[in-house]
Write a structure and sequence with these properties.
Helix content is about 65%, strand content about 10%. It is mostly helical. InterPro entries: ArsR-like_HTH, HTH_MarR-typ, MarR/SlyA-like, WH-like_DNA-bd_sf, WH_DNA-bd_sf.
């Protein structure tokens, strides 16, 4: 958000500050815990997310640019993750036959084994640390709330 032409900030009310801080603290703790739970599989949460996206993609491959966009990673951040994941043998890069400048991220059999091994533990962790603390109504409310937040944020990213 630009501060040009800005007037005095609209400061958060005490209730707004509590909601914001609780969200920030809980989300950071949740992501750190989910990441720690994947360490026994030698995966990080970003690695798991990339493998999960590729496991659902046709032929377990996706253009690097599309993967970066969906995973909300900069191209340089994705490139760094790819180097680490290629070294681990989970992924490989293949040139795009149509666009000589483009590359595909392709899941290897070792990457498939890694996601298959980690998925049950990850789902159990997500359930125990998040889902099991919510009623069905809470789950629906959270989904609706974050959809309202995500849509304009995604549009901002697309317009950059």
């Amino acid at each position: 958000m630009s501060r040009e032409n800005a007037t005095a900030p609209k400061w958060l009310t005490p209730n707004e500050m509590v909601a914001w801080r609780r969200y920030i603290i809980a989300s950071r703790q949740l992501l750190a815990s989910l990441d720690a739970d994947l360490k026994e599989h030698d995966l990080t949460l970003p690695d798991y997310e990339i493998l999960a996206l590729l496991s659902d993609a046709p032929d377990r491959q996706m253009r690097m640019s599309e993967l970066a966009k969906i995973a909300l990673l900069s191209r340089s951040r994705l490139s760094h993750r790819m180097k680490v994941m290629e070294k681990a043998g989970w992924l490989k890069r293949e040139p795009c036959p149509v666009d000589k400048r483009g590359y595909f991220a392709v899941m290897t059999p070792k990457g498939w084994k890694a996601i298959v091994a980690a998925a049950p533990d990850h789902v159990e962790s997500v359930r125990a640390r998040f889902i099991d603390h919510l009623s069905k109504a809470d789950q629906e409310a959270i989904a609706q709330i974050f959809e309202r937040i995500e849509i304009p944020l995604r549009k901002e990213v697309e317009n950059e």
